[in-house]
Design brief:
There is one protein chain. Residues 74-88, 493-507 and 510-514 have low confidence and may be disordered. Strand 5 (499-503) and strand 6 form a beta hairpin. Helices cover 66% and strands 4% of the residues. It is globular and about 75 Å long. Helix 2 (36-65) runs antiparallel to helix 3, helix 16 (426-440) runs antiparallel to helix 18 and helix 16 crosses helix 19 (527-544). The protein has helices spanning 15-33, 36-65, 96-117, 138-145, 153-167, 173-190, 198-230, 235-243, 249-267, 275-282, 285-310, 315-336, 343-364, 373-398, 421-424, 426-440, 446-460, 464-489, 527-544, 547-557, and strands at 70-71, 93-94, 399-402, 408-411, 499-503, 510-514, 519-521. The chain is built from 20 helices and 7 strands. The protein is mainly alpha-helical and 558 residues long. A 3-stranded antiparallel beta sheet has the order 4-3-7.
Length: 558
Amino acid sequence: MTGFDTPQVDWALVAPVLIVLGAAVVGVLLEAFVPAAARRVAQLGVSVTASVAALGAIGWSWHRLNGIDGTALYAMVTPDSLTGFAAPLGALVVDGMTLVSQAIVVVVALLSVLVMADRTASREDAFTPMVSAVPGSQYEQLATSRRMQQTEVYPLVLFATGGMMVFSATADLLTMFVALEVLSLPLYLLSGMARRRRLQSQEASLKYFLLGSFASALFIFGAALIYGSTGSLSFTEIAAATVSPNGLEKLLLVGVLLLMVGLFFKVGAVPFHLWTPDVYQGAPTPITGFMAAGTKVAAFVALVRVVYVMLPGMGWDLAVLVWTVAIATMVVGSVAVLVQNDIKRLLAYSSVAHAGFVLTAVAAGWGTGDKTDGPWAVLVYLLAYALATVGAFTIVALVRERSADGGTTGEATALSQWAGLGRTNPVIAGCFTVFLLSFAGIPLTAGFVGKFAVFAAAVQAGAWPLALVGVLASAVAAFAYFKVIVLMYFPGRDAKVEDAEINTGAGGATVTMARPKAATVVATQGWAAVTIGVCALLSVLLGILPGGVLTAINNILL
C-alpha cells in the first residue's frame, strides 16, 4: 500500500484566489435568494468588495514573500539552475510574476465591473434582459418592457477572474488546463449577452466557444503527449526530463507544439487570431474590454512559465517557432488595423499586433540564458496595454448613435460616426486620444514605456531582428491610430452633413442616400467615467514617471 502525502496549503498565499472565487459562489447564491429589485446592488457590492479585498491580500502576500519565491500548494521548493525561477513540486506557485499579474487582472476586473454596472438615463446597461430569448421575439420584447436585468454577469466575471489568477500561477499542466476552462467558459457565455445586435452577439459567442473548444482540445492532447514522454505533468520534472534524452523526443516535440497552439489561441497570435475581431465586435463592449485585457495578461504569464520554467532546455529547438509567430503577429495585426472601418474591429486587430509585441519579449530570452529582462518586459507591457484597452473600450461603450427623435440608441462603431467628436465632447475625445497614443507607443504615455521595455529586452538578448520588425510594425499601426485622432478633431467641412445628393449618372437623376449619423456621448450614472479617468490618469503617469512602477516590478521578480 502506497503512502499518501498530505497537501501542504499556505492559505495566506492562495487568499486572493479564494476571495474572488468565494465571492463568485456568493454571487450565484444571491441570484437564488435575493429579490430581483435588490440583486444589482448586492452583486455590485460583492464584486467590488471582493476585488478590493483581493488586492489587499495580494499586497499582504507581496509583503510576506519579500522577494522570495514560494509555493501555495505542496510548499516544497527545489533550486533549479536551469530556469532561475521558482521550481515548485506542486500545483500553484506564488512568486513575483504571480503577484504582479494577479494584481493587474484584479484591477482590470474591478474597472470593468464598474462599466458593467453603469446605466444610461433610460436605465439601460450593455446586456440583454433575457439571454435565452430568440432575438426579436415577443418574449424578448416582454423582458425589455419589464426592464429585466441580467445580474448573472457579475459572478460570471468573478469566476473568469479567478480562473485568470490561477492560470498565471500554475506549476503543472493539469492545473493549467482546469484554470484555462474556468476562465474561458464564463467568457463564452458573456460574449453572447449584448443588448443590441443580438444575432451578431450570439454568433460571436458560438465562434468563441467552438474555436476555444478546439484550442482546449489541442492543449490537453499536447499535455497528454508530454506526460507520455516525460512521465510527469509538473513543470520542474518536465524541465529535468527535457535535458536527458530518453528516446521519446519526437513525442515530446509534438506535445509541446500542440500545447503552444492552445496558448497562442488564448493570446490571439497569428495564425490563431481569426476569432478575435468577430468576438470583440459581437460581445458586449464592457466584456470586450475585460476579455481583451484580462485574458492576455493571464495567458502571457502562463506562456512565460511554460517557456522559461517548463521548457528552458528546448529554447534552441523551438525559439524559431515563437520568433515566426511573433513576426507574423506583428505584421498581420499592424497591416490589418489600417483597413478597418469599425472601431471595435480596429481595436481587435490592434490587440493582435500588441500580442506580437509581447511575444517579442517572450522570445527574446528563450535559449539565450536571459532570465529576467524578458518576463519583466512582458509584465510592464501588459500593464500599459491593460490600462489603455479597458479605457478605450469603455469609451466605445459610451459613444452612441442618435435616433431620429434626438435620443440615443446603439453604439456608434463606424469610424465615420466619430467625426467631430473632439468638438462635441472634448473630454471623451481627449481620453480616447491618450489611449490611442499609448497604443502607438508615443512618448509620455504608458505604451511607450512598455514598447521600450520589450524592444530593449529583445536587443539585449541579441534578438534585434524582432525589435526591428516591432518598431516598423508600430510605425505602420500608428497611422491607423492617428487617422482616428484626426477624424475626431478635424472631420472636414461636410462631416456634419447627414444626407447627400448622389448623381446616379443614368438619366441625370439624383437620389438621396443617408450617411451614418454623427455620434454622441450618452449620459450615464458615472461609473464608466471613473474607469475612463483612472485608466487615462495612470496611462499618463506611467508614461511621465515610470521609475517607481518599473523598479517595483523589477524588485519583486528578483
